[in-house]
């Protein structure tokens, strides 16, 4: 009985969809599909023209969407990075050679042609390498998405260039939280103190490293 | 099927990811140098009013604010 269920899940449906519906059904790797959004749903436009021939049909939301940039067949030479914060956009479609992000599994380097990845970031250093320039930011936490078309989206809650960090505050914070960690009683207090120790030691190593 | 993925220490202590992320961001903001620090802190101030609804009617609202009451 289970073999039949698995077989049905694996066979793809062969129904034909209208253009508008085809643009919205899920596909693996939607970067392979380029959506023609200029004309809109042809059935809707025909029906509209029958009823109101002198008025242009209204645009549907999908016509306003820019299709995702397609995956090139040869390896692109540059990585396109979108580095955003909740209140500002640090880098928008910036073409760079490499980005090193502080993932929870360690420092991860992203080059053009990197395998599609979703990485959770821990407090640490982000460096953007373009030719011989390196720009470094300290990130508080966030996520990094690498897409098949060599676009990388880096989302962080707080990102500061290193020269805006005050080393005295960092040291004070580190010693305060280390002390709180040893005197913490409840699980939640211990977790907060541990987070404090982690963030301040990451800040410390970012400043000194 | 028991999930064997290791949970981060903050989740096993009952904290959600959003709380963790906000705590990290607040700690980083507190370590900034002066003009940037006050900009960052004032940027993150919130002021809002919350009311619970019972039987389709809002109850008395509570105001949560980072700006001191005048």
UniProtKB/TrEMBL annotation, chain A:
Highest taxon of source: Eukaryota
Location of this chain's protein in the cell: Mitochondrion inner membrane
One of the record's GO molecular function terms: proton-transporting ATP synthase activity, rotational mechanism
Entry keyword Thylakoid: no
Matching Gene3D superfamilies: ATP synthase delta/epsilon subunit, C-terminal domain, F0F1 ATP synthase delta/epsilon subunit, N-terminal
Main localisation: mitochondrion
GO cellular component terms listed in the entry, alphabetical order: mitochondrial inner membrane; proton-transporting ATP synthase complex
Keyword set, alphabetical order: ATP synthesis, CF(1), Hydrogen ion transport, Ion transport, Membrane, Mitochondrion, Mitochondrion inner membrane, Transit peptide, Transport
ATP synthase F1 complex delta/epsilon subunit N-terminal domain span: 79-150
Similarity remark: Belongs to the ATPase epsilon chain family.
Function: Mitochondrial membrane ATP synthase (F(1)F(0) ATP synthase or Complex V) produces ATP from ADP in the presence of a proton gradient across the membrane which is generated by electron transport complexes of the respiratory chain. F-type ATPases consist of two structural domains, F(1) - containing the extramembraneous catalytic core, and F(0) - containing the membrane proton channel, linked together by a central stalk and a peripheral stalk. During catalysis, ATP turnover in the catalytic domain of F(1) is coupled via a rotary mechanism of the central stalk subunits to proton translocation.
Quaternary state and interactors: F-type ATPases have 2 components, CF(1) - the catalytic core - and CF(0) - the membrane proton channel. CF(1) has five subunits: alpha(3), beta(3), gamma(1), delta(1), epsilon(1). CF(0) has three main subunits: a, b and c.
Identification of the protein by name: ATP synthase subunit delta', mitochondrial
Automatic annotation (TrEMBL), chain B:
GO biological process: proton motive force-driven mitochondrial ATP synthesis
Primary residence: mitochondrion
Database matches in CDD domains: F1-ATPase_epsilon (cd12153)
Keywords linked to the UniProt accession: ATP synthesis, CF(1), Hydrogen ion transport, Ion transport, Membrane, Mitochondrion, Mitochondrion inner membrane, Transport
Entry keyword annotation includes Oxidoreductase: no
Gene Ontology molecular-function annotations: proton-transporting ATP synthase activity, rotational mechanism
Cellular localisation: Mitochondrion inner membrane
CC terms in the record's Gene Ontology section: mitochondrial inner membrane; proton-transporting ATP synthase complex
Quaternary structure (record): F-type ATPases have 2 components, CF(1) - the catalytic core - and CF(0) - the membrane proton channel. CF(1) has five subunits: alpha(3), beta(3), gamma(1), delta(1), epsilon(1). CF(0) has three main subunits: a, b and c.
Annotated protein name in UniProt: ATP synthase subunit epsilon, mitochondrial
């Amino acid at each position: 009985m289970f073999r039949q269920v698995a077989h049905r899940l694996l066979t793809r449906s062969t129904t034909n969809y209208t253009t508008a519906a085809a643009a919205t059904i899920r596909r693996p790797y939607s970067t392979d599909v380029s959506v023609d959004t200029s004309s809109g749903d042809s059935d809707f436009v025909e029906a509209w023209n029958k009823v109101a021939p002198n008025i242009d049909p209204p645009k549907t939301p999908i016509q306003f969407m820019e299709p995702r940039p397609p995956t090139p067949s040869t390896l692109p030479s540059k990585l396109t990075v979108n580095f955003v914060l909740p209140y500002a956009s640090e880098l928008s479609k910036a073409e760079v050679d490499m980005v090193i992000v502080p993932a929870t599994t360690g420092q991860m380097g992203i080059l053009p042609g990197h395998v599609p990845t979703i990485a959770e970031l821990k407090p640490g250093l982000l460096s953007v390498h373009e030719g011989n320039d390196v720009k470094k930011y300290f990130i508080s936490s966030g996520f990094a998405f690498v897409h098949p078309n060599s676009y990388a989206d880096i989302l962080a809650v707080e990102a500061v260039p290193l020269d805006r960090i005050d080393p005295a505050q960092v040291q004070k914070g580190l010693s305060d939280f280390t002390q709180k960690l040893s005197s913490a009683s409840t699980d939640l207090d211990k977790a907060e103190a541990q987070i404090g120790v982690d963030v301040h030691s990451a800040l410390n190593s970012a400043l000194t490293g | 099927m028991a999930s064997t993925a290791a949970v981060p220490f903050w989740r096993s202590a009952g904290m959600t990811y959003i709380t963790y992320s906000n705590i990290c961001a607040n700690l980083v903001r507190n370590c900034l140098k002066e003009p940037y620090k006050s900009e960052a802190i004032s940027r993150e101030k919130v002021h809002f009013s919350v009311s619970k609804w019972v039987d389709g009617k809002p109850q008395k609202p509570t105001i949560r604010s980072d700006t001191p009451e005048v």
